[in-house]
Amino acid sequence: MSTSEHVALATELAALVERRVTDPLEILLGEAGPVAPVRERLRIEAEVWAAQLLGPDERLAVRTSARLIAALFPGDDPDAPFDPPDEWWGTAFGRATARRAGFPGRAAVSFATAGAMLGITRQGVHDLVKRAKLDRHPDGGVSTDSIRERLNHPQERHAVRQGHH
Q1: Which residue, of 13, 33, 47, 151, has the greatest Cβ tally within 10 A?
Q2: Does residue 89 sit within a domain?
Q3: Nearest to 94 by CA among 137, 65, 61
Q4: Hey, what long-range contacts does 73-79 have (CB within 8 A, 24 or more apart)?
Q5: What's the CA gap between 149 and 155, in Å, rounded?
Q6: Are 104 and 135 in contact (CB under 8 A)?
């Protein structure tokens, strides 16, 4: 984890929590409500969450990502899965989630979403699938496990695949 990654992620998480949690709480409780201590605590927690998302403990990173997604992106329909717009994967939180948890709740995504997760074009994803550097999912689209693997070990996967040709 680089310092700049941590700072960008912590800053983004703090702003997201501010918009989605503390601002609405302040609207509901009014300015006289006890929101200031909550706001400060959540800024501190954003630093911790960033460290957990970028740290060495993969299970903790996945749990942290799941907790944040559940709290910050609740859906009105309990049966509807988390489905952010493709642009979300370009955010610091989206990139950390893609690396650590893949796409929560999905085994496969479209080529366009895979491109957004990888930061490349849809055509780039087609090329990677064609060259067996990403796995096509049997039900269509691209396997989220292969996307996560490529994000975490792009050179290893390339070397392994080359050895089979």
Answers
A1: 13
A2: no
A3: 65
A4: none
A5: 10
A6: no
The tokens describing 3, both together, are 């310092």
Same domain, 66 and 1: yes
Q: What is the DSSP letter of 104?
A: T
Look up tokens 């984890």; give the residue. Answer: 1
Query: Structural domain of residue 114, as residue ranges?
Result: 106-165
pTM above 0.85, yes or no: no
In whole angstroms, give the CA distance from residue 106 to residue 140.
12
DSSP assigned state of 136: B
Considering its fold, how many domains does the chain have in total? 2
Work out the angle between the directed axes of helices 92-101 and 35-54 (0-180°, nearest 10): 50
Q: Please check whether residue 50 lies inside any domain of the structure.
A: yes
Give domain status of residue 101, yes or no: no
pLDDT tens for residues 79-133? 667 888 999 999 999 999 999 999 988 899 999 999 999 999 999 999 999 999 9
Inside any domain, residue 26: yes
